From TrEMBL:
Coiled coil: none
Occurrences of domain ABC transporter (ranges): 23-54
Keyword Glycoprotein tagged: no
Protein name as catalogued: Lipoprotein-releasing system ATP-binding protein
Keywords of this entry: ATP-binding, Lipoprotein, Nucleotide-binding, Translocase
Transmembrane segments: none
InterPro entries named among the record's database cross-references: ABC_transporter-like_ATP-bd, P-loop_NTPase
Family label: Belongs to the ABC transporter superfamily.
Molecular function as annotated in GO: ATP binding; ATP hydrolysis activity
Any one Pfam family match given in the protein's UniProt record, by short name: ABC_tran
Length: 58
């Protein structure tokens, strides 16, 4: 299958919140025809990850 998206070691933290890590070393790949879900409790970084992925396509 053709790979359509790959991430390696995504990190995001906020300095104003005492170096609060939202995402730490996130890596994954998606292939054509695959489906995935991003699940987690409130404040776990789901929206932050999607935001980072969305600005990669500019």
């Amino acid at each position: 299958m053709k790979q359509v998206l790959e991430t390696k070691n995504i990190n995001k933290y906020f300095l104003k919140l005492k170096d609060f890590h939202v995402l730490k070393d996130i890596s994954f790949s998606f292939h054509e025809g695959e489906f995935a879900s991003i699940m987690g409790k409130s404040g776990s970084g789901k929206f932050t990850l999607l935001y980072i992925l969305s600005i990669m396509d500019t």
